[in-house]
């Protein structure tokens, strides 16, 4: 599943529910995956793309 989340705030990160890894939304356009590989995040100031099954991650806002 590919999800574009253009409205994610700077204090937001994606947390993998399988391995509990936390990936900050701004990866500076570098695809970053969690430790188990279930979730991948690619993002910058203008967009965030999350790849993975929606049941495997949650979006956490601080």
* Helix-and-strand structural type: mainly beta
Question: Could you give the order of strands across the largest sheet?
Answer: 1-6-5-4
Shape: globular
Mean pLDDT rating: 86
| Cα-atom radius of gyration | 10 Å
Distance between the termini: 24 Å
SS strand fraction: 35-45%
When the domains are counted, the total is 1
Order of SSEs, N→C? EEEEEEE
**Percentage of residues in helical conformation:** under 10%
Number of strands: 7
Unreliable spans? none
The major sheet is characterized as: 4 strands, antiparallel
- Number of separate helices: 0
Summarize the structure in words.
By secondary structure, the protein is mainly beta. It has one domain. Helices cover 0% and strands 42% of the residues. It has no helices and seven strands. Strand 4 and strand 5 form a beta hairpin. The relative contact order is 0.35. The model has no long low-confidence stretch (mean pLDDT 86).
Write a compact overview of the structure shown:
With about 60 residues, the chain is an all-beta fold. Helices cover about 0% and strands about 40% of the residues.
List keywords for this structure.
62 residues; 3-stranded antiparallel beta sheet; globular
Secondary structure elements and their pairing?
Blueprint: E1 2-4, E2 12-16, E3 22-24, E4 32-33, E5 40-43, E6 48-51, E7 57-61
